[in-house]
Amino acid sequence: MPTISMFYGIIIRMYYAPKEHPPPHFHVYYGEYRATVDILECEILQGDLPVKQTKLVLAWAELHQDELMADWLLVMNGEEPFKIKPLQ
Description:
This protein has two helices and five strands; from the N terminus they run E-E-E-E-E-H-H. By secondary structure, the chain is an alpha+beta fold. The protein has one domain. The protein is globular, with a radius of gyration of 12 Å.
């Protein structure tokens, strides 16, 4: 699963697998925490993160929603996603 962005100890990944289950989403890793985030709704679908990291991830997702959807389409076609600029 490629890492598409990293910031403040948060790792954002997207499965590199055609036919990944909908809705469009990405995976977040922060220490022992894990979460799955819906790209279109910018909300956590599964798992949990500390409050501060949740706010950072969701803000980043809103800023990069178009790029995340483009990456989702790439991985659905079996192609490697592009890196996305980290939150600064």
